[in-house]
Structures are given as structure tokens and as C-alpha cells.
Amino acid sequence: MQGHRPVSRRHALAGALAAPLVLRYRGAQADTVVIKVGALKLIHSITPWFYERFVPAGYTVEIIPFESPTDCKTAVVTRSIDFGTFGIAAGILGAAAHEPVVVFGSSCNKGMAVVARKDGPIETLKDLKGKRVAIWPGSTQEVFILERLRMEGMTIHDVEAVRVSFSEMPAALARGDVDAYVGAEPGPGNSLASGVGKIVEYPYSTPMGSLNMILAAHHDTIEQKPDLARLVLSLQKQGSEYAMAHPDEMVAMTVTKLGMKKEAVELSVKNVELNWKMTPEMVEAGKTYAQHMLELKQIRALPDFSQFFDTKISDQLSV
Length: 319
Fold this sequence. Notes:
Distance between the termini: 42 Å
Largest sheet: 7 strands, mixed
CATH superfamily of the largest domain: Periplasmic binding protein-like II
Mean pLDDT: 91
Structural class: alpha/beta
Number of strands: 12
Oligomer: single chain
Low-confidence stretches: 1-23
Strand content: 15-25%
Number of domains: 2
Number of helices: 13
Helix content: 25-40%
Order of helices and strands: HEEEHEHEEEHEHEHEEHHHHEHHH
CATH topology of the largest domain: D-Maltodextrin-Binding Protein, domain 2
CATH architecture of the largest domain: 3-Layer(aba) Sandwich
Shape: globular
Radius of gyration: 19 Å
């Protein structure tokens, strides 16, 4: 997106695949099926770490963390991983470019916020005019902020957009590198807990609602390994339902696996809705996303929704 520029070399490198922190569930035997699952280093992508409780004998899960939604999507497309949880916007970008990415489950609603310095003058979205705002290109948050700016009679050219990864946003705000950011939890929770930041708004007032992250796979994986896809969506179902019913354990898992501060994560949990089911409302919100991205010229054409969304497995598990 034009207008983005890096804050530092560290930020430019932050979108790359995370260091090989690979977590393996269950001891792998010679005949064990290994499932590679990509997850973002964010609390609303924490569900795969709960798969361990429900993985059946004969399978092992490797979780590969990513900093960038588009990197996780690309790993799915190149089949470097079998399944991935990432923002719907990254999936739409891929599908609109005719990449073989298929959404077969939901992953999370909410989990984002517009955050500004607590001691600063920014109180509403209109106050962002002329300010340095951290936005991660290709993210769901980018789509939301562009639509919210449009609703306020503004465009991205009314702010100075700065390319910063989600994990670096709270630090960039604290240093004064940016005046505000459009972040993903637990970043907003971190800024609140440290006393540096304040919530400008939770940007859920658009027609896109609060849809954020999805569960996706390569088209061939869905077609050739439907039982494996069904198993993974079942793990997503059980893991997300368990985590939502045990918020203290969600906090503990995020602190342990992602190295987040407990105080920040405890605030973030309130803004996270882990899920799995592809409801009609979820699919419609996804189509609305794509339409907004087309109007914003982020994509040149709408995806083929008959290929991009596959609700069969979700419908089967809903019975």
C-alpha cells in the first residue's frame, strides 16, 4: 500500500517467517502422520496450541509461528505447511490472485484495536489526520482502518502510514516512533497494561462486523485429504471451545508459548473470540471484506467464492 515506509531495518525484517520455533505434539513414530499448522504470534491465533489436548493417536502436530498473515498464507499456497490460521484479508489477496487457497473454517473474531498514546491528543479516528499511524500492509486490520477512515470522510492519504509488524507496534508507540497504531491483540493489551496507550476504538462498526481470522488450506489438500482437513477443523473446534471456556488457561498458554506479559494478555482476552464454524454470517462478512478490498483497489477482481469458501466440513461438524 502506498504511503507505508519502514521505521527501521528491524521492522523491515519483522514480516519474515519467525525463527524455527516448532512445537511438536505427541512422540512421532515411524507411521505417525505429521500435520504442519501455521499460526500467527498473536493471542487470537492461540487455538492450535490447544490441539494437543485432543490430537488422536497416530498423529502429531507441528506448530510453525509466523509474524505476517501474508507469509502464513503463502506457506499454505506453497504447501510448506498443511494448514494455516491467518487474517481473512490475506486469504482474499491470495484468492483474488488465483492462488489455490481455500477457507474451510473460521478461527477468530475481534482481536484488534486502534491505539494511541495515553498522554496524546488523539481521542477519535478523525484525530489521526496528519499523524503517524502504524499499519501492517495486507492485514485484516488494514482493511478495517481503510473502511473506518472512509466512513469518517477520510482516506489513507490523510495519515502518515508506517509499516510496522504487530509485535513491534506497542514498542514503536512507546518510543514515539508513531502516534497511533492499528493493532492485533495482545498488542493493545500490552499498551494498556504498560500505561502508555489508550483505546481509540475497536473498529467493529463496519459491515464486516468483527470477522478476523480464518483456517485455510491448499485446494489440493482439501480435495485429496478431506479426512485430514476434517480432523484439523475438529481440533480447531475442540481447542477454541475449550480455550473460550477456560480464559485463565488461554492467558497461561499465550504467556508460555508466545512469551507475552500476563498483565497485557489478561486485558487482551476480553477482546478475543476464538471460534471454528463457517456460519452464513461469517461467509457473508468475508464477501463484504472482498468487496471493500476491491473498492479500495487492494485487489483487481473478486475471488471465485465457490472455490475460496468451502463450508462442507464445517457443515458436517455442525450436525
